[in-house]
Amino acid sequence: MSDIAVKGWCPGVWQPMQSGDGLVVRIRPRQGRIDAEQAAGIAGLAERYCNGLIELTNRANLQIRGLREDNHSSLIDGLARLRLLDPDPDTEARRNVLIAPFWDAGDEVITIAGELERALVNGPSGLPAKFGFAVDCGNERVLSGASADVRIERDIDGQFIVRADGAELGRAVSRNEAVTAALGLAEWFVSGAKAGRGRMATHLTAGEKLPEILCGHARPGPKRDTPDPGLTPHGPLFGVAFGQLTSAALNWLANNAKALRMTPWRMILAEGMNAMPACEGVITRADDSLLRIVACSGAPRCHEAHADTRALAAALAPHLAAGARLHVSGCTKGCAQSDPASITLVATDKGFDLIRGGSTQDTPVLRGLSADGILANPSILSGGR
After folding, report:
1. Residues near 56 by Cβ (< 8 Å), separated by ≥ 6?
2. ∠ CA(334), CA(360), CA(190), 5° rounding?
3. Cα separation of 233 and 362, whole Å?
């Protein structure tokens, strides 16, 4: 395999990232959707060339884990046949568009998203790897908590706005101006970002001011809480524990749904199904405690991790107090979640540190806990001894 980038924060198909269990390949479904044939094809490729594990990311992408270098070209060929391959790494990297999943065929969410993806093929160049767009222009905003730098939304009167992440207000635009205005914000960011790094909200917080032509005074419309698993008018919404599916579970979804829509909540919306049958590896109940736990890949899948995070997280799920949220991180970087959680466990070379009401960067109340010790006394999570 030649000219392959094996380091970096945002792996792609053309440029995988090295991890503890092999290469990680990220697939960015066009308009956030894969049809049944593509889903079955991804499951087959994951089984044939990788370790059979598929992850849902918080950017509504799919990751295949455990790829060997000598299988990379075969995987590329397979994804090309499934119409899931961009022509080159730069095009792939720019096409970072998050789409609200509750759309109907032909409505403005999906048509704007398609327009934006096509426009991104030719620029702007120089965007940081994590820079992204959100198309969230339904009646309610559902992506307000998801990662994006430029947002296409509606205001409180239902009119289109384009808003820089971190700005309270957005600029009112017509339907035909929305994509152009979004690209204008991206181009402004590139012209001012230092060394092609950073995020829009950080840029603005640091004191950068939007030019008058990109500013607005329109207040974003109402936002909706993150949905739970259950039936929706568009099909059932299935949860996925820790965002990790087996190839068998993805194949089951492919055999039962017309298409799958990805979400940033580690859930999949299955088009064409009118029930929620049980399947090993997917979550159907809104009260499942696994939905309130976030865990990164952990050891041995990640070189930076000090412990197997997901085994501990799954074992602690039955002991999690009602309403509490648990984050288990393999190191202090907190890749799986940057926001505070009720309880955060951070693996270190001396054991787990426990943080209450904070993130991996906050001061622990307890240090050096062993996984066995936590499991023997899970009440420690809620303050017990």
Report:
1. 62, 63, 240, 243, 244, 245, 262, 263, 266, 267, 268
2. 50
3. 41
Residue 50: CB partners within 8 Å, gap ≥ 6?
A: 22, 25, 64, 65, 66, 67, 71, 75
The β-bridge partners of 358 are: 341
Alpha-carbon torsion 118, 113, 253, 327, what sign? positive
For residue range 353-376, list pLDDT tens digits in order: 999 999 999 999 999 999 999 999
Cα–Cα distance for residue pair 83/38, rounded to 1 Å: 8
Closest by CA to 262, choosing from 77, 29, 80, 104, is: 29
Counting residues of the chain whose pLDDT is more than 90, the rounded percentage is 80
Sheet holding 133-135, edge to edge: 97-99, 133-135, 150-154, 160-164, 171-172
d(CA 233, CA 217): 33
Helix (H) or strand (E) holding 73: helix 72-81
Residue showing tokens 């094996």: 6
Q: What letter would DSSP give residue 364?
A: P
Q: Which of 10-19, 76-85, 309-318 has the lowest mean pLDDT?
A: 10-19
- For the record, the structure tokens of 307 come out as 């412990």
d(CA 179, CA 122): 13
Place of tokens 């270190």: 348
Window from 4-8, 176-180, 336-340 with minimum mean pLDDT: 4-8
Flag the least confident range among 51-60, 147-156, 192-201, 211-220. Answer: 192-201
CB atoms within 10 A of CB 293: 24
- 85 burial (CB, 10 Å; 0-12 / 13-18 / 19+) is middle
Q: Which amino acid is at 69?
A: E
Q: For the chain, give the number of residues.
A: 385
C-alpha to C-alpha distances, 216 to 200, 213, 367, nearest whole angstrom: 16, 8, 47
CB atoms within 10 A of CB 164: 26
Task: Cite the DSSP H helix spans in 84-195.
Answer: 89-94, 108-120, 178-192
Helix (H, G, I), strand (E, B) or coil at 244: strand
Residue 341, C-beta contacts closer than 8 angstroms, at least 6 positions apart: 294, 325, 326, 327, 357, 358, 359
